[in-house]
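Pilot study result, target chain (399 residues):
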Amino acid sequence: MLALALAGCSPEREAEGAQQPARATVEVAPSTPVRGPVQRSVRATGTLFGEESVTIAAKVPGRVAEVFHDVGDVLAPGVPLAQLERVDFELALNERRRAFEQSLARLGLEELPEGEIEVETLPAVERARLQAENGHARYERGRLLRERVPPAMSEQDYLDLKTAWSVAQADHRIAQLGARAQLAEARAQKAQIESAQQRLLDTLHVVPGAQRQGAEYAVVQRRVSVGDLVTVGAPLFELVDPDPLELRVRLPERHGGSIELNQLARVRVESSSREFEGRVARISPAVDVRTRTFEVEIAVPNPARELRPGSFATAEIETEIEPDVLQVERASVATFAGVHKVFVIVDSLAQERVVELGREGDGLVEVLRGLDGSETIARRPRGLVTGTPVRVVVGGGAP
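Predicted structure:
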């Protein structure tokens, strides 16, 4: 019975085998590997920073009277940000002005002249000088009377005149010293007035001056409100110059010989689909001994404010051009599960080749391994497997 069954099945299997169609020929367009120049680059990731980041801190203590701007405002240098209460500083300034006026009155001056002052012209010193000159004149007249024969002045009167002259000279010197001390005090009081004026001006906090023409600052953070009592050094605002930005990346030390100033860098961020161009602006001369990397700063123009400080970014720093590199059309490469392959046409049959790819650009991709450049490759190799019959048609192939 088993023999009969097997004998009965054999014709059916032969009929099924005869019904299987032969593998169809696929029309493909040919593509040939080419050799040409390739721009080498170094890929790095980092964070975008403002070229200038400023923390506006309180220069004097006080209570916040007004806040003029908030987060997101873009401001030019010199624009007011916050005003502290002025009353205490105005009172201190007036107090110092009154003390200075009192010192000028003691000196007999209406204003303090610039530069050195001849103390002999001051009223108190001039009075002492005149008294000393008068004492000297009286002494000389007494000396002449004393020298007559017989003397016309007693010894005691002569000595009194001499003593009076000496006292007048001492009073003159004391007046000179006192005038110099009063002048020094007046100058100190004038400096105190200037300091009080500056403290009064410091109650108004403004956007600082920029290092380049036309620069602006954006308010990143506001840390105070009206009524807050702040101390010296308390942060009030965080400002950043958003154009240009600096992308700070760290590169392995093996790239130290290929990175140079002004090299082009192509920057991408997750918040935008477009590519931004920057230039290498600064290169650290030292390598971090812990990470064996060095820092590179890339200046990225940001006139439209599309990039934001603090964003994560990726940069391709173009280093050198390699003149003779094997490349194929990107459309000729099939990729699955991270494996790249092309189909080479050999004796009208497709043969799969696994390749290792490098830099991609302008529709071409670099082939590092897997081809020698003499092959003919199928473009858009969809549906091909090794052994598939193919017919080369210029301009044909899968759409």
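One observation from the pilot: The longest helix spans residues 155-201. A full batch analysis is planned for the follow-on phase.
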